[in-house]
């Protein structure tokens, strides 16, 4: 089946979903596309590698340009070349190892030129390079853009992975980007999850998974995700780490950054070093040993209420006070 035929299937699927009709068995339909998202350092790369190891599914590294393309096309109609430039000129383009001329050729076939078809064409080209039929995405920040993406790609199914924010903060503070204090990390974690959960009721396909559950019952969680995205579970997903180094090697290039020195290739690869190993139970609850009581209090004073909402145990009076304050002002 050629590119335009496959694209027609996606267009047809979108029309069906938007009309609220299910025509299984009568109309060829492309499968759902998982969009893995969440607070950075929560396990999004781990999920990406597990899903990407499936024989049918290809998930590139972080894209970041999808909302930008949607907004650009909503402001005014762009030509095929302009939309291609938006991706090719993006700082992440080099991570995908695609041929720019091939992408332009695909875009030249679009009629009409829409953001939806342009986005799909990119993912389809990437999936073909990997010898796969299905595509997905892993960009943590899309947890803030779910409604926008859903509006254009109704086949998108959002997998929001949540991890104990105190463990997330330990990872944040080791990076050469992002939050520099426990309080800043707590604010980012709390606000992003709060926004996602507030948005969730208006997102047609949304699920939450816990990093802690993924580590404790990897197969069980993967089976839940596969059911959610209508993908048959394959045991090869449990051996994702055997191919992880090869897949992560796509990022072995310097990444430009605004107003800051470029992020070296070695640093980018090092940030995902543990994703090359099977899930490790010692990555759960690390904060108990690594954070001082003062550190814990600083974090929980900001995010204690969200920790409680998600069922995590508090370990400081500051956290208890934060939770009590929020409970006192909660509606009802």
Secondary-structure blueprint:
Layout: H1 3-19, E1 33-37, H2 44-52, E2 57-58, H3 66-75, H4 80-88, H5 100-108, H6 115-129, E3 134-135, E4 137-138, H7 146-152, E5 156-162, H8 165-172, H9 182-199, E6 206-210, H10 211-216, H11 218-228, H12 241-248, E7 255-257, E8 260-263, H13 265-270, H14 287-290, H15 293-309, H16 317-329
Parallel strand pairs: 1-4, 1-5, 2-3, 5-6
Antiparallel strand pairs: 7-8
Helix pairs in contact: 1-6, 4-5, 5-6, 8-9, 9-15, 15-16
Give your account of this protein's structure.
α8 crosses α9, α9 packs parallel to α15 and α15 packs parallel to α16. This protein starts with a helix and ends with a helix. It is α/β, with parallel strands linked by helices and 332 residues long. It is built from 16 helices and 8 strands.
Please give a quick description of this structure.
By secondary structure, the protein is of the alpha/beta class. The chain is about 50% helix and about 10% strand.
């Amino acid at each position: 089946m050629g590119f335009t035929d496959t694209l027609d299937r996606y267009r047809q699927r979108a029309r069906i979903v938007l009309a609220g009709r299910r025509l299984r068995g009568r109309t060829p339909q492309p499968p759902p596309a998982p969009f893995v998202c969440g607070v950075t350092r929560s396990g999004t790369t781990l999920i990406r590698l597990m899903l990407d190891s499936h024989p049918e599914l290809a998930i590139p590294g972080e894209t970041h340009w999808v909302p930008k393309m949607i907004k650009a096309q909503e402001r005014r109609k762009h030509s095929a070349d302009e939309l291609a430039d938006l991706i090719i000129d993006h700082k992440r383009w080099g991570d995908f190892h695609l041929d720019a001329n091939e992408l332009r050729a695909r875009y030249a076939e679009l009629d009409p030129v829409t953001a939806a078809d342009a986005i799909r064409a990119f993912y389809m080209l990437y999936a073909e390079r990997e010898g796969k039929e299905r595509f997905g995405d892993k960009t943590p920040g899309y947890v803030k853009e779910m409604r926008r993406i859903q509006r254009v790609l109704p086949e998108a199914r959002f997998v929001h992975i949540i991890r104990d924010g105190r463990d997330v903060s330990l990872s944040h503070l080791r990076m050469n980007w992002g939050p520099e204090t426990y309080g800043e990390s707590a604010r980012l974690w709390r606000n992003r999850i709060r926004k996602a959960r507030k948005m969730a009721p208006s997102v047609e396909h949304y699920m939450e998974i816990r990093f802690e559950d993924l580590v404790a019952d990897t197969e069980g969680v993967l089976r839940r995700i596969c059911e959610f995205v209508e993908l048959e579970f394959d045991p090869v997903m449990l051996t994702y780490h055997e191919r992880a180094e090869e897949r992560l090697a796509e990022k072995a290039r310097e990444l430009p950054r605004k107003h800051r020195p470029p992020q070296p290739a070695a640093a980018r690869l090092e940030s995902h070093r543990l994703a090359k190993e099977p899930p490790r139970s010692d990555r759960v609850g690390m904060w108990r040993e690594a954070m001082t009581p003062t550190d814990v209090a600083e974090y929980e004073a900001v995010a204690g209420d969200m920790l409680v909402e998600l069922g995590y145990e508090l370990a400081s009076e500051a956290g208890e006070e934060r939770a009590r304050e929020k409970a006192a002002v909660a509606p009802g």
